[in-house]
Model the fold of this input.
Amino acid sequence: MKASVKTFTHFSSAYGFRSYTISALADSPMHKIPFSLIKLIDSSLSSFAPTTTLLFHNFSHSIDCNICNTLIRRYTDSKNHSYSLYVYTQMRKLNILPDSSTFPSLLKSVAQLSCLEVGKSIHCSAIQLGFASDIYTNTALVSMYGICQQPDDARQLFDEIPERNVVTWNALITSYTHNRMFREAVDVFREMLGCGVKPGEVTMVGVLSACSHLGALSQGKWIHDYIVRNRLRVNVYVGTALIDMYAKCGDIDEAKKVFETMGPKNIYTWNVLISAYAMNGQGEAALQTFDRMVVEGVKPDAVTFLSVLCACCHQGFVEEGRRLFSNMINEFRLQPKIVHYGCMIDLLGRGGFLDEAMEMIHSMKLKPDAIIWRTLLGACRFHGREELGEFAFRKLLELEPTNGENYVLISNVHTQKKKWTEVGEVRELMDSSGIKKIPGCSSIEIENAVYEFKSSDPLERGHEEIHKMLQDMKKQLKLAGYVPETEIALYDINEEEKEHNLIYHSEKLALAFGLLHSSEPTLRIMKNLRICQDCHQFFKLASAIYERNIVVRDIKRFHHFSGGLCSCKDYW
Done:
């Protein structure tokens, strides 16, 4: 589907020239320049390349456009982006006209600094100076608007420019993926092929990233097939993107196959494979890959240790996790970040070592953030530690008073103890503060189309067949031993009402739809929240009774259901 765009035709007329435009700096007294830009320039002047300021001050008559372009490229390539802007302002002050080589690097710096208004004014200057048709400038502008979170403007410009090359198409695809508009990114890729433009490696990395986030396995496989059919080079970046796509779509066997057949690998390739094993419930394979990586002489980094610690969390490998955390600090000399501590708190808490988890929180050098306290609260729910859970919840109220997930977690702690008064008080606090629980949402891909479902009563129009299918499934599953986990319900209502609410969780709606409309042996479902205990039991039995493999990707990990069992071994 084509992205909607704004109705203006020309950026120059839409934005105009105002007092903050770079092109006007030469003629403007300093008090008219925006303070943010003055501060940006001053900070770079005081901290970097004083020789450049002397160059402009003492040799201004000898400086030309080529020298300025060289300086801009130098500062952009070395990530000193504010100084690139400084050079450009000096160019304009000295009435040195930019050429087509000035804008690509300059706009890259603008994008990295997220200076959208400056980027707009440079765009206007480029048009005024006659570069409206320059392919390199336009490509840099598309990229700049995308990185500055203006994907509609990027698309508007893309549609207006007279000439495009593969880099221009890549810039638009990246604009959409950068702004999490993954379906639009895939649509642009197909549009690109329809226009007869041959994609390159950068294109493939961008569109495979989009498929990874969508969990669109069939589309990802089609792209992989396209790479093979057209003999595109599978370099380290494309190979890593393929591994990541297969992993995030739940096809760990294909991910491993790509890893083993690709040529050179870098640290990112190893990290992606270890993470793939971790999120798909193959903790042993993740640890074996880590050991193999070290033996082959690849030095693990902070991301590597995050992945192996996650693998330990998902499998309950407490001792192994303790050892790896210690090795990270003492053997590999890496300082743990807050995410590493979060993994350790999760590992210890879910393993029942809540007191040790609290000791780690008190002893760590970093200030505990909301993720640390929420992880501890989740462990308290798992083990019924109400008092400690209340303590963690109070910390969360200080850090994230409007996050509905925290209220749901503490409600679950009280629900386990059947303390309905406390549950009611939490609900009242949420209502009085206007805090809403995030609604459950699941999707399933069937024949290249993605269908989405929200947790609700499917008696609404068009859902009658799903309602009937769910009722039939519940009868079949009860005969096989299914008992609804009504104790997780957050309201003190009768059992029948609790069962009614549980049966319409979004992942069950997606499953029923998939069983009705797909004959594929494997159904793949994505969920925006953590799968609940009732749905987990429901899916295990459904995989056996209906003889289908069911892969569920929730916010935490993958669950592979087959023959009445789950890959997580009921530890999640």
In short: Residues 1-47, 490-495 have pLDDT under 50 and may be disordered. The longest helix spans residues 464-479. The radius of gyration is 28 Å. Residues 443-566 form one domain.
